[in-house]
Amino acid sequence: MNGTLFMIKPDGMPFSEEILRLLDTRGRILDYAPRKIFESAIDCLYSQMDKDPVFFALREYLNENYCGIGIIDCSIDSVLEITGKNTDPIECEINTIRFNYGAGWGYTKSGLSVLRNAIHRPKSEEQNSLQINTFYK
Predict the structure, then answer these.
(1) Helix (H), strand (E), coil (C) string for the chain
(2) Which domains, ranges and CATH numbers included, belong to the chain?
(3) Is the pTM of this model over 0.85?
(4) Model confidence over 71-103: pLDDT tens digits?
């Protein structure tokens, strides 16, 4: 499937309609559905972080509730612009998805520190292809 993958994270799900409207300003949403995310998918999405101590907090956070998985018909750069280029919402441009809807630093149910930034998006074509194949085999 062509396009760019995005995932609305648990803290963004209460704002999913607003987030989808913002994404829709960049391109047509080709597919979207709320899903529970399996650990194998999290491992794929965040393979670069598997040795990072926050990885386990991230894994727990993404399993707190449903996430919204979708594909949008636009470039990765366009998705990065509307979502925010930084990981921390407070460092993102005003009126980006992460700035507007990311909750910032918080804690998982077990007390681990985690950055809640509302949305995941790939940063490269290679990541995008791998992540699309994870959800759309």
Answers:
(1) CCCEEEEECCCCHHHHHHHHHHHHCCCEEEEEEEECCCHHHHHHHCHHHCCCCCHHHHHHHHCCCCEEEEEEECCHHHHHHHHCCCCCHHHCCCCCHHHHHCCEEEECCCCCEEEECCEECCCCHHHHHHHHHHHCC
(2) 4-135 (3.30.70.141)
(3) yes
(4) 999 999 999 999 999 999 999 999 999 999 999
